[in-house]
Design brief:
By secondary structure, this protein is α/β, with parallel strands linked by helices. It has helices at residues 7-10, 75-82, 105-111, 132-143, 148-161, 178-189, 208-225, 236-242, 260-265, 270-277, 284-289, and strands spanning 24-39, 44-60, 64-68, 90-95, 98-99, 115-118, 196-200, 228-232, 245-250, 253-259, 330-333, 336-338. The chain has an eight-stranded mixed sheet with strand order 6-7-8-3-9-10-12-11, with helices on both faces. Helix 4 (132-143) crosses helix 5 (148-161) and helix 5 (148-161) crosses helix 6. It is globular and about 65 Å long.
Length: 348
């Protein structure tokens, strides 16, 4: 039996613009991450994989920012750099006004309980030699002033919160299903009552029937614990259920950012339009007649990106200037940001 996303997901109020949001929790300016390419006996640097290239955005307290794009577009790297699991090559990332990119490891350690991550693969992200109690209790052991009895009580509370049986705390990860393992990962992420959680494709490795359950759990926890999410996914239909705003990423660049309904109903960038056209529509009449945009070719290598607009090699609306000049990231209408030469700002 297939489990569907609850009605509360559909009825969740969506943000219409950035001005409607609460205070900024995370702010990113021109964030860049290059991974060096080394060759030869002396491992000289001969190039770089430009995974993230000058992205700028804000995440407001209590909201969910969806981040979508093809595999290899830099989504996961963006999330990892935000949490300083990978260090930025350039740019700025702040959490409540505190600059993360220049913090020492000691300073970051004090902040880590407030910034957590849910990983994509619930199998490889859990230590198979540790019990569930040890996995979920590890952050408490590192950061909380609790004795063994206090930690065990907190672990049982967390397991109950994510829909697992406290009696199973002494079992090992291989004794659980994929969906249950992901719930263990969620319990570990919220153990220290964080403010900000990066959800790195948390449903990609799960069966379709389980995905909606995990999304509903994340929404429930967000409401109860006042969490702020960066939700990374390539599943546009699922992002529409959980996100307040959505950013679209291509080859390390942000190409569009808008409130969720605005982005799905009025996509402006040709890449966003192509992605939207691939999302199935539940109405068979519309599905049979609507036009799909088929992109030709493959995404270029981030080690050798094209000049000009990163999307120009596959864009159906490409112009000469697109091959020469990278378009400016600008707000074309209130709260709707696009990087495209073809899209002109609208007069209010």
């Amino acid at each position: 039996m297939t489990t569907e996303v609850s009605e509360t997901a559909d009825q969740k109020p969506k943000a219409s613009s950035s001005s409607d949001q609460a205070e900024v929790l995370v702010s990113v300016k021109n964030l860049t991450k290059h991974f060096p390419i080394r060759k030869g006996v002396f491992r000289r640097e001969v190039g770089a994989v430009k995974a993230v290239e000058g992205v700028s955005f804000d995440i407001h307290k209590g909201e969910t920012l969806g981040l979508v794009g093809e595999s290899g577009s830099g989504k996961s790297t963006t999330g990892r750099v935000l949490l300083q699991l990978d260090h930025a090559t350039a740019g700025s990332a702040t959490f409540e006004g505190q600059e993360l990119t220049t913090m020492s490891e000691r300073e970051l350690r004090k902040l880590r309980p407030r910034m957590q991550m849910i990983f994509q693969d619930p199998h490889s992200s859990l230590n198979p030699r540790m019990t569930v109690s040890s996995i979920v209790g590890e952050p408490l052991k590192e950061h909380a002033d609790l004795d063994a009895a206090g930690r065990q009580k907190r672990v049982e509370e967390l397991l109950t919160l994510v829909g697992l049986q406290p009696a199973h705390a002494n079992r090992y990860p291989h004794e659980f299903s994929g969906g249950q393992r992901q719930r263990i990962g969620v319990a570990r992420a919220i153990a220290m009552n964080p403010d900000f959680v990066v959800c790195d494709e948390p449903i990609a490795a799960l069966d379709v029937s389980i995905q909606a359950q995990v999304v509903n759990l994340l929404e429930k926890l967000q409401e109860e614990l006042d969490l702020t999410y960066l939700f990374i996914s390539h599943d546009l239909s699922m992002v529409r259920h959980i996100a307040d705003r959505v950013a679209v990423m291509y080859l390390g660049h942000f190409v569009e950012l808008a409130a969720v309904d605005e982005l799905y109903d009025n996509p402006l960038h040709p890449y966003t339009q192509a992605l939207n056209s691939a999302v199935p529509v539940p109405d068979p009449v519309i599905e049979a007649t609507r036009k799909r945009i088929i992109l030709e070719g493959d995404i270029p290598s981030p080690a050798n990106p094209p000049s000009g607009c990163p999307f120009n090699t596959r864009c159906p609306q490409v112009e000469d200037r697109c091959r020469e000049v990278n378009p400016e990231w600008r707000e074309v209408t209130e709260g709707h940001w696009v990087a495209c030469h073809v899209v002109e700002p609208k007069t209010q």
